[in-house]
Design a protein that fits this description.
Length: 255
């Protein structure tokens, strides 16, 4: 069974090694796009033993965020996979990891042939020293996403400039899509309130109407249901819930 990892990364030299080290445990090889990085990302990719194919986009072209649409990068990676012809494809961003990575290959080897893709839990980690319990008190930061699919010729990407799913849009033409709860993906990109606010500002500048985010406002999606201008309300409610949580803990009650 051959497993191919795919990745798009930009300026990820400080974090991509951890992701690649994890992928080395369950991928036979990784194909990557270095999207105009100006740090050491390209060197890290080229030197890592699991990475066998890197397409580098010239950073001199532009440093504008999403200068090239995300859909173009996904399409290129799908076509690069045509030259590998693996049994399975696993897509990770450079700030993601798989929990219990050594269990992944045995699980994939037992998936029925009629299943073309798998949906797995996707957890956003939390490590904010100023608001350490914002997750879970204000939300669980957990969803279900598709990062694993069988390879088939002719798989197609979404067409949006950003926020396309990683699963090929036509994967259901080749078999069922099933949920797999025993494998969890962890994402480290939104682990503080400050980083979430920065993402909201970026995405709202790129897509003010939220058209590429299924109509969901970026601030409400990333800021636990609160508007960008209502951070004081968010923190007020957090402190109220934190006080209640501490009171229950002191009295030995379930938090």
């Amino acid at each position: 069974m051959k497993v191919l990892g795919l990745m798009m990364v930009r300026n990820g030299a400080d974090r991509v090694t951890r992701t690649l080290d994890g992928m080395h445990g369950y991928c036979d090889e990784v194909y990557a796009i270095d999207d105009r990085s100006v740090d050491e990302t390209y060197r890290v990719l080229r030197q890592h033993p699991v990475v066998t194919n890197v397409f580098r986009v010239d950073p001199a072209l532009s440093q504008q965020d999403w200068f090239f649409p995300e859909s173009l990068g996904l399409h290129l990676l799908y076509r690069m996979a045509d030259f590998s012809r693996p049994d399975w494809v696993i897509f990770l961003d450079d700030d993601q990891a798989v929990v219990s990575p050594h269990a992944l290959r045995p699980i994939l080897s037992q998936v029925p042939a009629a299943v073309a893709a798998l949906l797995t839990p996707w957890v956003s980690s939390w490590d904010d020293p100023d608001y350490p319990l914002l997750v879970p008190l204000m939300g669980q930061a957990t969803t279900v996403r598709g990062h694993i699919w069988r390879y088939f010729p002719g798989l197609a990407s979404g067409s949006k400039p950003l926020h396309n799913g990683r699963l090929p849009v036509n994967i259901a033409c080749f078999g069922r899509i099933e949920r797999l709860d025993s494998i969890t993906f962890v994402h480290d990109g939104w682990k503080t309130l400050r980083s979430r606010v920065a993402k909201v500002d970026l995405y709202q500048a790129l897509d003010p109407a939220g058209s590429y985010n299924f109509g969901v406002p970026y601030d409400e999606g990333l800021l636990f249901g609160y508007k960008r201008g209502a951070l004081k309300d968010l923190l007020r409610e957090y402190r109220r819930r934190l006080a209640l949580h501490e009171a229950r803990r002191l009295h030995g009650e379930p938090a």
